TrEMBL record:
<dbReference type="InterPro" id="IPR004360">
    <property type="entry name" value="Glyas_Fos-R_dOase_dom"/>
</dbReference>
<feature type="domain" description="VOC">
    <location>
        <begin position="10"/>
        <end position="154"/>
    </location>
</feature>
<dbReference type="Pfam" id="PF00903">
    <property type="entry name" value="Glyoxalase"/>
</dbReference>
<dbReference type="InterPro" id="IPR050383">
    <property type="entry name" value="GlyoxalaseI/FosfomycinResist"/>
</dbReference>
<dbReference type="InterPro" id="IPR029068">
    <property type="entry name" value="Glyas_Bleomycin-R_OHBP_Dase"/>
</dbReference>
<dbReference type="InterPro" id="IPR037523">
    <property type="entry name" value="VOC_core"/>
</dbReference>
<protein>
    <submittedName>
        <fullName>VOC family protein</fullName>
    </submittedName>
</protein>
Length: 214
């Protein structure tokens, strides 16, 4: 577990390219209701052969923003039949791999999640999946650029024990993938070893924290 001081304050913005800014504005501002909060018109900017572009931002809550670049005169690049405006993949690339790169946006309640589902289902980009998995429930669709978008809510709080489990899992993963023949079986074996090594000390630490707060 990292002992470095944690001072960052979340996402300032995530940025993607778009070849269809009109549909992008329709999807995020007019369907989902994310306000436009900033734009940059960059004419004659950058190194030689850099096209003029506009960089525009949507408010996605909590002072976080989702941004897009539109480059004037730039045409979509050739590639495979799958993917999005940024990456085009061949037919043999598994869809689960392509969908692993996505943006997830948090809401607080089931009512909020269902309201966004209603907005999407009454648009040109209806919800494609609604799934409960582990501690969250999510709806998914693709935006006009082919980017997968997830809107998610927590089903319950994540416990301190689950935080410990996550750190044990990731430490075991790092150990396994930096060695020979990484596999799920090897990860679970290494994780069991780490549990044996660390669980007692963690429990003692939690008890000490509880005593200190009494």
């Amino acid at each position: 577990m990292s002992e470095l001081q944690h001072t960052v304050k979340g996402v300032d913005h995530v940025a993607y390219p778009t070849f269809d800014p009109a549909a992008t504005v329709t999807f995020y501002r007019d369907v989902l209701g994310f306000p436009v909060v900033h734009s940059i018109c960059a004419a004659g900017w950058g190194p030689e052969k850099h096209p003029d572009f506009i960089h525009f931002f949507f408010d996605i809550g909590n002072d976080d923003r989702l941004a897009f670049f539109y480059y004037f005169g730039l045409e979509p690049f050739d590639g495979g039949p799958q993917g999005d405006s940024y990456s085009r993949f061949a037919e043999d690339v598994p869809i689960f791999f392509i969908r692993s790169r996505h943006l997830a946006i948090h809401v607080d309640s089931e009512d909020d999640l269902m309201e966004y589902r209603r907005r999407l289902d009454h648009s040109s980009w209806p919800v494609e999946m609604q799934i409960q998995h582990e501690t969250i429930e999510s709806i998914y669709t693709h935006d006009p650029n082919g980017y997968m978008i997830e809107i998610t809510r927590a089903l319950r709080p994540v416990t301190a024990q689950e935080d410990l489990d996550a750190n044990l899992t990731i430490d075991a993963l790092v150990d396994v993938v930096t060695g020979p023949d990484p596999s799920m079986a090897a990860l679970l074996t290494r994780k069991a070893e780490l549990i044996t090594e660390r669980a007692a000390a963690w429990q003692q630490e939690q008890e000490s924290k509880e005593m200190a707060t009494r």
